[in-house]
Specification:
heterodimer; A: Immunoglobulin-like; five-stranded antiparallel beta sheet; 3 helices; rod-shaped; B: Rna Polymerase Sigma Factor, Chain: A; 72% helix; 0% strand
């Protein structure tokens, strides 16, 4: 339909050499831009990873704080710790007079336990009675609820030179307490031992 | 050929391959050298930004033509350009061409865009009807119809001026 000279004339329409420079420059600029973007992405990725780690650590800390268990055994007003023994207070004389364990050949130690979770208590010798510290309701040794619990631990005086253990087992860790007669102080003492094996 | 087997060439190779054709098409639509260059540059910006994956060379060429046509439409829409280059300026572009050739081209360039594009691709850029259909997103019959009407229009326009268009 068209003569060759018309087509040839059409083909002479060409862009200026500047267009090639523009396109080459565009690609170079884009490459630089992409490098910058990649660097930024890398930076933000690193920041993101660090932030995620911080969140995880914080979450772990908070979760741990929230679910951490606290078990404190009190002898009188003193917390029984692993460092040193504290005097084990005996049930007061008036109560002992009415107690079944008021016979002279027995010793009843009064302790108070505070826990933030359920626990189970046992002794290797003697008889342990547990009561809710607020209501005075008797409690099952195998299922001590969280809160304050009053403990009365009655042991036979025939074993006065012996050593007696009380175990408190929570979900987190088992604890062991030793009741012994300190001859130098001439009184019964209680201390925390290492964790129950 | 699968898409993964066709390796898209570098920007430089693509420039060599398509820049002149795209510029001619853009110039035919926009009728201003600077606008045509801007449109072609934009096509390459889009290619660089999108990095499209092509099935084959034909798919690649169709993509460039289609983006160029769309880009020209955008330019026209944005700038509200409906400027037709006077014959003198056209002659400047076609400095070495005879004046009768310039007049023929001016007549082609003055066609409505939808007819102009099929004429240019078919007669000047050696596209097949199928390739034009693929490039412009039209059916084969629509391309044939446009070619037929474009020829009629050209014949009417050229009547009295040239017997052989």
């Amino acid at each position: 339909m068209f003569e060759k000279k018309t087509v040839d004339a059409y083909k002479t329409i060409q862009p200026s050499p500047h267009l090639r420079e523009r396109v080459v420059q565009l690609q170079a600029d884009t490459a630089i831009e992409e490098t910058k973007i990649l660097r930024f992405r890398g930076f933000y990725r690193s920041v993101g990873v660090v932030a995620a780690c911080c969140v995880l650590v914080l979450a772990f800390f908070l979760l741990n704080l929230h679910t951490s268990e606290q078990v404190v055994l009190y002898a009188g007003n003193q917390a029984v710790t692993i460092e040193h023994g504290v005097p084990a207070p005996q049930q007061d004389a008036q109560l002992r007079a009415y107690s079944l364990a008021s016979q002279e050949d027995t010793l009843t130690v009064s302790l108070k336990l505070t826990t933030t979770s359920e626990s189970n208590i046992s002794v290797d010798n003697g008889v342990l009675s547990c009561y809710d510290a607020q209501s005075g309701e008797p409690l099952d040794m195998q299922q001590i609820p969280k809160g304050e619990t009053q403990l009365y631990w009655t042991i036979s005086m025939l074993d006065a030179q012996g050593q007696f253990h009380l175990y408190i087992v929570t979900k987190k860790e088992p604890l062991s307490y030793l009741l012994y007669f300190d001859t130098s102080a001439n009184q019964w003492m209680i201390c925390q031992e290492n964790e129950k094996e | 050929m699968e898409a993964s087997q066709y390796k898209t060439p570098s920007a430089q190779v693509l420039y060599e391959r398509y820049a002149d054709m795209l510029y001619r098409l853009a110039y035919a639509v926009l009728r201003a050298q600077q606008d045509a260059e801007d449109a072609v540059a934009e096509v390459f910006v889009k290619w660089i930004a999108k990095q499209p994956v092509f099935r084959d060379a034909e798919h690649e060429r169709a993509w460039f033509v289609r983006v160029c046509v769309n880009q020209c439409r955008d330019f026209q829409r944005r700038r509200k350009i409906r400027v037709y280059t006077p014959l003198e300026e056209m002659s400047e572009v076609l400095a070495q061409s005879p004046s009768d050739t310039t007049e023929v081209l001016e007549t082609v360039f003055a066609l409505p865009e939808k007819y102009k594009m099929v004429i240019l691709l078919y007669y000047f850029e050696d596209f097949s009807i199928t390739e034009i259909a693929g490039s412009l997103g039209l059916s084969v019959s629509a391309v044939k119809m446009r070619l037929s009407r474009a020829r009629e229009l050209l014949r009417c326009d050229m009547e009295g001026n040239h017997e052989d268009v």
